[in-house]
Amino acid sequence: MQCEKDNFQQLRAILQNLSQLQTTFINKNQVKDSAVLSIEEHVKTVSSMEHFKALDQSQFDKTIKKVQADFDNVMLTEELLVPSVWTLSNNSDVKVSLQVSSRENRVPPVLDALLYIFSLSTESFRQKYFKELIKTYYEFLMQQLASLHSNASDKITDLYMDLQVRILLPVAKIILVSEYHNSKQVSSELLNNLANYFQYPLIHQEEVYEVVCKKLDSTDFHLVSYKLVSLSEKNGHLGEYYYLKVVLQEETLDFFCKFLLASTEYLREIIETRNIGKKENFFYGTLYPLFQKYGLEKLLDFAPKCYLRGISGYMVLDNLTELGYSTPEVNTVLNLDGLKAVLDKLAKFHACSFITEERLSEESGRQVSLYDIYERDLAEKLWTYEGTMADLMDRNISNFTYVLNKFPDLVEELNMSPEVFQEAIKDFLYSILFISKMPGSRRKVVNHGDLYVGNTLIKYGPDNLVIDGKLIDFQVVRYLSPAYEMMFFIHLTSTKETRTKHLKYLLDWYYDTLRKYLEEFGLDLHKIYSKQDFEKDVYEMKPIAVAMAFAYGHTTLMDTDIRKEVIFDQEKFDYYMENQRDELTDLCWKSEKYKEMMRGLMTDSVDLLKNGFRWDRSLLGIKGL
Known about the structure:
With 625 residues, this protein is α+β, with helices and mostly antiparallel strands. The protein has helices at 8-28, 40-47, 57-77, 109-119, 123-147, 158-182, 188-199, 205-216, 265-273, 276-293, 336-364, 370-373, 375-378, 387-404, 408-414, 418-429, 482-493, 496-519, 525-528, 531-556, 560-567, 570-579, 581-588, 592-610; strands at 82-83, 87-88, 94-95, 106-107, 223-230, 240-248, 252-259, 306-310, 314-318, 325-326, 445-447, 456-460, 466-471, 478-480. The protein folds into two domains: 8-201; 265-617, no CATH class. 56% of the residues lie in helices and 10% in strands. It starts with 7 loop residues before the first helix and ends in a 15-residue tail after the last helix. The strands form five sheets. A five-stranded antiparallel sheet has the order 5-6-7-9-8, sandwiched between helices. The chain has a three-stranded antiparallel sheet with strand order 10-12-13. It has 24 helices and 14 strands.
């Protein structure tokens, strides 16, 4: 078949025919005995090329070894492998015969699709159509498998597609560069594309195209260069942060990037078992567009806009530092203006749930909740008594006692026998597990789920007063009472003195702010979520909010340097977080700020325990708890 470059309809037809052929082999399961593709020789060819000698060689070696290792791992673990039919003719033209010989190597299906796309298109063409072509290819593949009633279609999940494309993109480029280099016809634009990947392996040039297209709402631009600049801040526990600087002929654009990477085994287990990447992908990929559908644009400034997201854990957002926003230190303590700035955005976020549910209910003629529709995405995945989280909660029991004993006056005030005290604090601290088991009669909303200061952006005005805030990192979204999230944030980020003076005011102010935002959309908050129900929720949620604030506080409130040292070093993490939590407390106790915040949380805890308000953990039905 004679092919020409940059012909969309022709490429589309090739991908359709390719998917049909691949489906036949997947369905018949005929190719298990053939050899799998090796890219070792291609890697050697690319490694020897002069074009890449100007790059940082340590970075280059590290990246190309990872490409090789990731590809080898895919070939060992991948169940959906098909014969490769992509090939170059003797004159370096692409042959599209779509015929398989017995000698062809097995490859993941999308690798051939990538090879056809790249060998039959230029950079300017892929800038406009790459994402659409990949989406089209997978749609064809799924349709073909469905038509044959093949169970293989169940394996082609969003995560599968995301990981396959991200891992195999550099492989396809390496194969092409190697093949074209051998025939001395390799293009400079493909060489530059691959060189960019070797410099910045966390993001692909095709993804940069997608980001700019969404930002400009146009495919008509000329990319000059891009680079990732690592941020020194490590406020988040689950990720690495970068600025993405994109230079166009027309202008320069700045973005904020987050990649979900773990520095310790504990954090890796959290990412892999608790749906962290999936939840944030759900927020920006499903929930945010749903809010837009119902005309809530004026409320959506509670979070930065997202231009790229992947279920495997990467994201590109607006860089709001240009507008004066900054990420505060994790142990930042907020005064009244800071609390109000963040709670205002939280009220907007919560209002979006109320308004959307009302619109959905009007359309269906019955009461509909977002949880009804998205239970799988909103169900509690983090705070469950399993694995590392169970160990963490158990350690909190002994550490709570250790911290409380540092304040003899509070122990004396509590006036409990050791036996009664131990049972009381277990009920109190295990109350965290009730967050997904609250009474169903009162209204709930989508919660951020991980709202500590490190997951906010703050904008300061004159006299260093906080004038605005944003919410970021929606990795733990869940469906709970709005009162819980508000109470948790206040207790974790303010001093006891601030709460004593302003808690009642903040409760009323938050509810009135929420009411105001609903009124802008013609809704009466009192009829949806009465002040009486809100106050009941505040009362019932306070023990859980305070217990959760303690669970977070031992980490988020510690001195910044100590926190970075402990959280991101596997050996120290194991020592302090897994085995010697009391020693970690002693290490943090050198900070007067830490002691003040812990005393405030202990005082609130003692007040709750003294008054007998705690959740009976036996109601959880967890054996041995």
